[in-house]
Each structure stands twice: as C-alpha cells, then as structure tokens.
C-alpha cells in the first residue's frame, strides 16, 4: 500500500496518490496531469479512479484531462452535476483499489456535494480519512461559498455541524486526517500549517470539534469574521463543473517566445496585460516593461493572479526567468487563466538590447523608512497587508490599504501624490507598487524587507486591543 500526500505550497493544496496491487487513485488532482501519470507509471499501476471531494473554488482541478488520458472513472459524491461523465457516488458506497477500499462519506456543509473518503486496508483497519474541505487541521471549511437563493451560509454551517458530528467524529481517534488545504488557503479562516493530524488530537485542539459545542454555537463561530472570498472563486467553480481547454493546449499556446519588438507592440494593446514573474530582487534591480504588473512566481503567485486579475479570460503576456516559462503557464492555468499568449524571449535583457524603455520602482530600506517617518517627511505611508495583520500590530501613523482590495479602493489614491508601501516581507508591497505605477502613480516607493524589518528599527508600533466586556 502506498498513500502519498502531494503538497503544492502556492495554493496550500494537498492532492493524494493511492496505490495498491497495480491499481491507483488520485484524490483532488491539480490541473496538470503528467505528475500523476508518471507516478502511476513508476509503480506499474493503472489509474482506476479520480476522486473529487467537491467542486473546488480556489483552483481548477484536472479530472477531465486525467480521465481522458488514463481511462479512469471520475467520482463525485451526491448532488454533483457537472457537464462531463462521472460516477455519482452514494453515501457509504465502496470503491476497490487493489487490496484497498475507499468508502465515500457524504459530508455536506462546505458545499452540498462535499464528500470525504475513508480508506480501509486489507485487514479492515481504517488508517486514513481524506476530508477535503470538510475538516482542516485546526479549522473547518467556510460555509459561504455555495450559498444559493434557498440556502444560506447558516444553513450550510448547520449541515457541516451534522457532517462532522455524524460522519467524521465517530471515526477512530487514531485515524489520520488528510485535508485538501492548509495554512494560507482562503477556503478556511485559521488553518494550521500542519498538513495532517490524528482525529483524536483535532478533537482536543480544533475549536469546531469541541465536544460540548451546540449547533447554534458552531454556526455562529464558523460564520463570524468571514471576509468576501477572492473574486476568482466563482469562476473556478464554474470551470470545475464544465469541460475546459486541455492543459496541453493551454501550455502550447502560452509558451510561445515573443521577440522584444513584437512584445512591445502587444504590451501597448489595451486588452493585453503584461505580468513580470521574476524574483522580486531581480525585478527591482533590473526594471521592467512599462505598464507591467509584478507578481513573482516564487511567492503566492496563483492566488494573487486570481485575486487581482479581474477577467478570467484576460489576454496575458509575461516575463519569466529563463527555463521557467512552462512553469509560469501551468501556474496561471491552475486558477483558470488560460489565455496566456507567450513570453518575452531573452527576458528583460533582450528588451533593453532592443533600445526599449524600462520602468523601475523606487525603494528604500526599513531603516531609511523609519528615519523619514520620524522626521515627518513621509505624507502617505501605506501598509498593504490584510486588515487582520494590520490590526494585530502596525506602525503608528501608517494607514491600511490591503492589496486584496486594491482595485475597489484605488479611487482613494491621488496619482499626483507620493506613496510609500510596505507589507510583511516585501512581496505584496512590490505587487501593489507595480499596480500603482501601471495606473499612473509616478511617485511610489517600496520599503524593502517590509514590516518584519521595520519592527527591528525600534519604530513605534500599536496593536489592536479587544474592548473589555464589563460583567
């Protein structure tokens, strides 16, 4: 028996590969198919099933392409009605994979088709349960992503309470919980950085599994403090219910090299967006194509593309480090941005060699920022971290301008003023600065090292204090 967790850090997503006696199954695959096919090939196994725990909102899953290439059967739980052939499983139904059995447990709440899969070995032991977005480590799935006119988030939270109590918490305490997401995903509120745990330990530490919690308390707890989901979530659900352009065609189209002159002509077209995916230090030092956005491939690339690029069909050309062009296109496609048209051949060096102008973002160190702030010469310092990060601790005199909502709040920005931006470590602030500049703000400066380095300067900080309740 082989059970392997496949963690993708950019999406904080876990897919699973299961193999037994020449047969294999994949749970919640990413868009790209080759890694799974190669794993099965190495084991001399045939992929028999592709199991989905639900219609994912934060990434486009690869079940249709994978089934076409391998002949595998796609399995969803009850209430799933996609536009392609599936086996719609029933609660309690079993599926054989070599000497192993997977039992479908219908666990609605995050979504109504949401299902978990219980693994039973040849001896009848139950070592693992794959919980999808029903149960995370330290948290549970948010109940507001599948709201319909006749179904409120409180209704979904109620279903989730029942699923946890009646299907998951009745399993053995020593069973390993394997969820679909970890810390950093927007599918929950407060997930742990751990990617698995025993159910018994989760009963002790996960607020949502507290033994004496009432249904009403649970509903209040899981629905309080929910922020609007990223704008691309709805598009990804729609794509996961439908048949999309094959991943091979997306990669073929997106990995076309474009010479500097042609790239310049394309970059000046209003319907084409340029994204610079290089390392942040390289981007800052060498400059970029005028109007380009920076979203570095080595940070939270795919989620930030999804959060910031409003049109899922946006035409995109990009700048990449040599040898990473294929990777960039794959990572665009993971969140449904399939309309990549190619990359700058030879990178920014070929652009400069052709005599074209570059844009650069001004930057200063955390120490310089702290000194300027103390001297009162910075009028518009902005902290682009999430509101929750800002409220936990921030620099006195610095306003919050979350990157997540930069487009909806941009009317507050005066293009004639000068802005100093920082985030936690310098990745998000550079994204924000590039968008400021692309939208006509000529004086924008990035604070290198972000809040992490700013704290070390001894600058005065303030933290949010919860109001005291008088008894």
From TrEMBL:
InterPro entries on file: Metallo-B-lactamas, Mito_Persulfide_Diox, POD-like_MBL-fold, Rhodanese-like_dom, Rhodanese-like_dom_sf, RibonucZ/Hydroxyglut_hydro
UniProt keyword list: Metal-binding
Domain Rhodanese: 268-360, 382-463
Keyword Metal-binding (UniProt): yes
Cross-referenced PROSITE patterns: RHODANESE_3
Name assigned to this protein: Rhodanese-like domain-containing protein
Organism of origin: Lutibacter holmesii
